[in-house]
Amino acid sequence: MRALFPGRFQPFHKGHLAVVKWSLERVDELVIVVGSAQESHTLQNPMTAGERVLAIRRALEDEGIDLRKVYIIPVPDILMNSAWVAHVRTYVPPFEAVVTRNPLVKVLFEEAGYEVLEPPPFGREKYVATNIRALMALGDPKWEEMVPRAVAEIIKELGIIRRMRELSKRD
Amino acid sequence: MRALFPGRFQPFHKGHLAVVKWSLERVDELVIVVGSAQESHTLQNPMTAGERVLAIRRALEDEGIDLRKVYIIPVPDILMNSAWVAHVRTYVPPFEAVVTRNPLVKVLFEEAGYEVLEPPPFGREKYVATNIRALMALGDPKWEEMVPRAVAEIIKELGIIRRMRELSKRD
Amino acid sequence: MRALFPGRFQPFHKGHLAVVKWSLERVDELVIVVGSAQESHTLQNPMTAGERVLAIRRALEDEGIDLRKVYIIPVPDILMNSAWVAHVRTYVPPFEAVVTRNPLVKVLFEEAGYEVLEPPPFGREKYVATNIRALMALGDPKWEEMVPRAVAEIIKELGIIRRMRELSKRD
Amino acid sequence: MRALFPGRFQPFHKGHLAVVKWSLERVDELVIVVGSAQESHTLQNPMTAGERVLAIRRALEDEGIDLRKVYIIPVPDILMNSAWVAHVRTYVPPFEAVVTRNPLVKVLFEEAGYEVLEPPPFGREKYVATNIRALMALGDPKWEEMVPRAVAEIIKELGIIRRMRELSKRD
Amino acid sequence: MRALFPGRFQPFHKGHLAVVKWSLERVDELVIVVGSAQESHTLQNPMTAGERVLAIRRALEDEGIDLRKVYIIPVPDILMNSAWVAHVRTYVPPFEAVVTRNPLVKVLFEEAGYEVLEPPPFGREKYVATNIRALMALGDPKWEEMVPRAVAEIIKELGIIRRMRELSKRD
Amino acid sequence: MRALFPGRFQPFHKGHLAVVKWSLERVDELVIVVGSAQESHTLQNPMTAGERVLAIRRALEDEGIDLRKVYIIPVPDILMNSAWVAHVRTYVPPFEAVVTRNPLVKVLFEEAGYEVLEPPPFGREKYVATNIRALMALGDPKWEEMVPRAVAEIIKELGIIRRMRELSKRD
Fold this sequence. Notes:
The structure is a homohexamer.
Chain A: E1 2-7, H1 14-24, E2 29-34, H2 49-62, E3 70-74, H3 81-91, E4 97-99, H4 103-111, E5 115-117, H5 129-138, H6 149-157, H7 160-167
């Protein structure tokens, strides 16, 4: 069975990694959908889709996850919820299930007839992307403990922290 | 060095595969950009982006190419040539060069300051996507010899031939 | 005279029905424009355009309104207020007036030279779409009294209440 | 059962009317989808969506067809065939089948799991929209015999012939 | 009176310049609308909107035309003819007339209630943008005589000839 | 050197005028980019792009600024920050620098390799567009002192105050 795991991954944190591992114990192949691919350079969405693809890829390699079992595919938004499943389906190989806890994603895929796999709330209280981004914008290094080691490295290498600190300045 | 290899890959044929191998002798990582990602279900563009991603992936695996050196990323069209390079750049990891023989792609990436690597015209006379699609629509099995074995299999498995034969009927 | 009556109709309530009746006493034909047609599956816009068209149609039939005097036409948003009147005009038969109390709609149609018919604020304090949607999301059946009987039936038949309750869950 | 009947209806001719009648003998309700709604003012697509809605409505009334069994809904194009069914579905009430002879429409709805009803080729050799438009642009009144009487009247009333004759002039 | 003069100006030639002069004898201010602003880097549309703005500006200055009487404003396409006038109107100061010989432009502005000023066919047989572009792509310097001197200079300075020669190569 | 000065100019106020003058002491030509060109008829964005172009033009003329050194070019939004610089570049003549104090604009142009010229915060406490628009919507004439005289005149002439007062009414 092939399943989707959609998210914005701004950034890809340890909770996301736990979901990937949990999923790979249940499905043959996992398609990580990097959503809102067109967004970047804001405090809410600091990284480009390509930067997120790179960070996820490095994290998976660093964790020794078999890349032959994973696809990482950026998908831009479409401003029509009722066509979103069909839109995503265009960008990815055929799949049978979706891994998500998000209410909107669940409703849309259920109405489209897909199976929904709900992962446990891995470290939900600790790994919250909003908090991680707030620390990044403040330049507080505590964000580094919340993401896989390889993600922290690539984020620093790509200059994302400097970008976020600039973006958080006043006009 | 990381390089892009953009194409529509309708379908991914033996000439494309030769370019991938040629590129991987020259660069560290190759990003295969599956262009016109929004197109499908026409005789000119029969496969969805996700179907093309799957076909390319299977071909690379079948050829024993190291997946850690390759990214396969679908990118939709943007109706503005002068912003196309920046648009593509959003979807992919940072890169320094582009592998192409296409005049428009060359002009756009050169004007944007990228290095262009021009591969030899591998089997240009034999592997022409337009001809391959014509054979597919006719149901003539000669198309199978023009694509990597794994691509032929996945195309049949996905029902692309049946789709093309239906699409070529008269109203 | 033919007039437009634009709204989002999320959902079509008794105040809307009163406006339709008021209008049909003043004009020969009424075009009900179901706006923001691309929106659905959110707490703010739960129903698809087609579901809203169906609900309105059933309400009009149930009330014995002559369907030959009414058009129900979904229109998606255009992100340009100054071209919105021309955009709407494309989707509907020629018209001379617009029925509205909305300040933006009034300004845009007045600047375009159309007559504006301002209906009385029918049950404004009782029939507020925001409140109706809040009750629907809570599963509180009081919303049913605020919409025409046929609308309540079709909303339940289409599973809109279940959809809204799912959407209002936490991640 | 509710079924869709999609077309561009540039203009709605006697062959289209025959399909509507044929369909209403087989389904409870018919949704006439006026496609390419955004197109108008060209020789290929002379009428706006609203003008086409009006022409179809008048033809149905003139033929004594019960309007309670028919929906006429304009739908703009989406540049993604694989999401087109979901896009159309947003604009219309729930349906189970589609009435069409068009190969692309058939493939897309079949892949989406809908039943396809194929009507006979009513007067295919006589009622060809391309020919009708050519006569209209030439100002040759023979086009009038090819469309329902009410359509001919509304086309003349709306000034479509004059528009087409202007558009066919040389720069 | 203020009037529009819409065109693609690929490139701005001596016929266009004659229309500008003819117009400025009849109206107080002229708004030159550089249409299809999103197009560039093709043989049909080689120059970006900004390059065309620059070329027109230089030509007007070189001819001693008072810049206080002219606006040069790029406008992207909108894929909806019936909303095009409203779309253009958004980008430009209020105006009363349009200068054009193009049938579609005439029909659209006349239906919107604007006055149409039809200029004489200045050197129609000599100054044809299609022919000028063909000469440019061939590298034949005869194109230079067909455009104002300042336009020829800026085209060479911007590297447009080299771009067109590259674009006209075979894959 | 040619530089860009991007803004929304809702409306163009005395602080903006000071930046234009400051820039023209440092660069040869200034391109005033009227951003969010597609927005209008809201309290946040009351004026169309064309109305803003007209207001800026009148202000520059009234101040005796040489129009041969200035371009005023409307540019619509693109929903992709990482492609925004390339998008803007399409609409304007070639340039080397950008005049801005906006953090996002700085980050985007710096990442694209452009020089950023940061003007002093001219009358920052006095000339705040948000406050000016609030006064305009209230009908408080104090806004007139905050914009160049010619801008105040054209705003009144175009009926912008009346439009804003209408838009600020309750439904």
